[in-house]
Amino acid sequence: MARTTIKSLKPGGVTLLISTRKGLWQLHSEPTRRSWRLAGPQFLGHIVHHSVLDKRDRRTMLAAARTGHLGPTIFRSPDRGRTWQEAKQPPAFREGSGRVVDHTFWLTPGHASTPGVWYAGTSPQGLFRSEDGGATWRGVDGFNEHPQRKAWCGGDQDATPDGPKMHSVLIDPRDAKHMYIAMSSGGVFETTDEGAGWRPLNRGVRADFLPNPDPEYGHDPHCVRMHPAVPDRLYQQNHCGIYRLDRPADRWQNIGATMPKRVGDIGFPMVLHPRDPDTLWVFPMDGSSVWPRVSPGGKPAVYRSVNGGKSWQRHATGLPKMQAWLTVKRQAMTADANEPAGVYFGTTSGEVWGSRDEGRTWKCLAAHLPHVYAVEAA
Amino acid sequence: MRVLIPNPLRSYTANAPIVAAAGTTLDELASDLDRHYPGMRFRVIDEQGAIRPHIKFFVNGAPKRSLSQPLSDSDEVMIVCALSGG
User: Fold this and answer.
1) Per-residue pLDDT tens over the stretch A56-77
2) Bridge partners (DSSP) listed for residue B63
3) In this complex, do B48 and A67 lie within 8 Å of one another by their Cβ atoms?
4) What is the ipTM for the molecules in this complex?
5) With an 8 Å Cβ cutoff, are B48 and A90 in contact?
């Protein structure tokens, strides 16, 4: 399997971008990551679905925002969030298509060879591309206008509660034309020609909420990650379990079956170690009965695997021991690139938790924030 | 004509509550506002040319739902953001 060298960052401070239902905050740490300082809010009152630093230049940030009243837009910062400007032409479907972008849900910087290129996934499912650092956006016609798009995505009845969405836009670091996307619902799709053509990539993934539990598409991947050092290694947290795929194979392997039965293998986020392709973290939530989506039994824990999902360890030191019904959304868990890696998650109840020892012990870094939608290390 | 700007849109008008704009229809007025205050139109009118769900336009105090609503220079247009916080 091809491997790309990922250098450890020198011990340094970490910035977390905390996107919430009421604005954007930043958490800054000093190099030991023992103490944190909360800064913000920016865009107070805006629903900020995702904020991301462009790690190609380490200066540009984009934030996807809207309000209850006003339509969706993108804000751009050239200076790590000190100042912001609104996009001149935010993501919007083609006039006459009958489709309307409700909000931009996911932001991904493009390939290292294409500075200024960004991708956005929207609700409802649409893929957009900017070639000028997020100032203007155009639809990726190969997906948005694909004759099969409606069949892939389904209708309103197939939507997740806060709208159907495209997420997990992944760029192969070896090839700018090779990308993956994921949709809830719709499943995982792959392109090898920079978005001109797409094919489903869902073999082996259950869809037991559908009449045919093994369809070609229509699945509900909650979060898909590509390992930065081994881009052929993909993981996904799905509505129906946890999976791993080692390309060029095209059948996902179920790695959730080794989770404890009383905890289950359902959740939203999925986080990979910045260097070790066999280490990953999930945050299980109750997926039984009516899908409560809270920590099973009110006892939150992060589960870590260090062998690619063959086995899992429970890590709850520092987290509340009982009566803590935490929900962590799909973009709301991340890792930094330090050694050892820091792992972080934000909750819908407005807390941000962090671990500076690869998930073994946890500390609450911030509380009383609004509903957290996304946490990204910058 | 006079256009009354609601609080959520005043980031576009440097906090001005009232601005001047031109147009013979609401659609033209929205485009003229966008020329002066880039980005404003898309926040209140979607890409299919529909007024967004929580936005209302009043012309001389009367609600108008169509962007083809005729306007004259003496009209006063108020943009209202309906209650949709929380």
Assistant:
1) 999 999 999 999 889 999 999 9
2) B58
3) no
4) 0.91
5) no
